[in-house]
Write a structure and sequence with these properties.
The structure is a single chain. By secondary structure, the protein is an alpha/beta fold. The chain has a single domain (about 5-275), classed as Thiamin diphosphate (ThDP)-binding fold, Pyr/PP domains (Rossmann fold). About 45% of the residues lie in helices and about 10% in strands. The chain contains ten helices and seven strands. The protein has helices at about 5-25, 30-35, 35-45, 70-80, 120-135, 150-165, 185-190, 195-200, 210-225, 260-275, and strands spanning about 60-65, 140-145, 170-175, 180, 180-185, 205-210, 230-235. Strand 4 and strand 5 (about 180-185) form a beta hairpin. Helix 1 crosses helix 4 and helix 3 (about 35-45) crosses helix 9 (about 210-225).
Length: about 280
C-alpha cells in the first residue's frame, strides 16, 4: 500500500474511533487518535498477519499495552477485515464482544488481553522470548503510552528484553505528552525517554509518529537491527485529526456528544477529501 493509501486508511480508522466512542458514550478517543497512523501502518503494511487466519502460528504479534485505546486497535482490525466495521458501533454495549479493553478470548486479531497499565510490555517480551526459545521467526510489537511508562513493571520488562537481546521485539511509545491528569511532566516526568531505553540496551529511534514515511523508516531500521530490541519514541498529537480534541487533555477519556460527533466527522470527511485530491 502506498503512502497516500495508508493516509486515507488512517483517516478511515479515525472515523471508526470517533464513531465507536460516540456510540458507546464512553471510551478514550485522544490516545486512540494519536496512535491511528501507527495502528494503520502496522496492520496494513508492516506485520505478517492474515485476517482469515487470526491465530496462524507464524503470525507477527501485537500487544496494546495501553489497553484503554482499544477503539484505535478495534478500528484498525475492523478495517483490515477481522470483523465488520459496522460492529464498531457496539463498543462497550452490553453483550458486545468489543469490550472497553482488548479481550483475546472474544475479539478476532487480539493477541493479548490488556488494560492494566504497565503489563502489556511484559507479555510482549514473553512472546518475543518464546519465539527465540522455539526458533520461530515471528516478530512482536507493543504500543505503550508515555504516561504508562511511569509504571515500574515497564522497566523490569525492558531490562529482560535488553539482557536477552530480543531483536524480534519492537516497543513503540506513543509520546503525545498528555495523560489523564495533565502533561506527563506535570504528573511524573519520564523524560528523557530515549536515554532510559538506551540504558536498558535498546536501539532507540525517535520519530514523528503521525508521519507515515517516518513510521516506515523506523520499522525498517528496527527490522535490520540485530542483537538488541528496538524502542521507537513516536512523538504524536493527542486527538490527532479532530480539531477540538487535538492537544486537549480533557479528551483523554470522554465521548463526544451528538453535536461534537458531527463536527469531528466533518473534520475527518474534509481531511479525506483533501487526500483524494492529492
Amino acid at each position: 500500500m502506498d503512502k497516500l493509501e495508508l493516509m486515507k486508511t488512517a483517516n478511515e480508522v479515525r472515523k471508526g474511533i470517533v464513531t465507536a466512542v460516540h456510540s458507546a458514550k464512553a471510551g478514550h478517543p485522544g490516545g486512540s487518535l494519536s496512535a491511528a497512523d501507527i495502528f494503520t501502518y502496522l496492520y496494513f503494511e508492516e506485520m505478517n498477519i492474515d485476517p482469515k487466519e487470526p491465530k496462524k502460528a507464524d503470525r507477527d504479534r501485537f500487544v496494546l499495552s495501553k489497553g484503554h485505546t482499544a477503539p484505535g486497535l478495534y478500528s484498525a482490525l475492523a478495517h483490515r477485515g477481522y470483523f465488520p466495521v459496522e460492529d464498531l458501533k457496539t463498543l462497550r454495549h452490553t453483550g458486545s464482544y468489543l469490550q472497553g479493553h482488548p479481550d483475546m478470548k472474544h475479539i478476532p486479531g487480539v493477541d493479548m488481553s490488556s488494560g492494566s497499565l504497565g503489563q502489556g510490555i511484559s507479555a510482549a517480551v514473553g512472546m518475543a522470548l518464546a519465539a527465540k526459545l522455539s526458533n520461530e521467526d515471528y516478530r512482536v510489537y507493543t504500543l505503550l503510552g508515555d504516561g504508562e511508562i511511569q509504571e515500574g513493571q515497564v522497566w523490569e520488562a525492558s531490562m529482560l528484553a535488553g539482557s536477552r537481546k530480543l531483536d524480534n521485539l519492537v516497543v513503540i511509545v506513543d509520546n503525545n505528552n498528555l495523560q489523564i491528569d495533565g502533561t506527563i511532566e506535570e504528573v511524573n516526568s519520564p523524560y528523557p525517554i530515549d536515554k532510559k531505553f538506551e540504558a536498558f540496551n535498546f536501539h532507540v529511534i525517535t520519530i514523528n509518529g503521525n508521519d507515515m514515511d517516518e513510521i516506515a523508516a523506523a520499522l525498517k531500521e528496527a527490522r535490520e537491527t540485530k542483537g538488541m530490541p528496538t524502542a521507537i519514541i513516536a512523538k504524536t498529537t493527542k486527538g490527532k485529526g479532530v480539531s477540538f480534541m487535538e492537544n486537549a487533555v480533557g479528551w483523554h477519556g470522554k465521548a463526544p456528544n451528538d453535536e461534537e460527533y458531527k463536527i469531528a466527522m466533518e473534520d475527518l470527511e474534509k481531511a479525506g477529501e483533501a487526500l483524494c485530491q492529492k
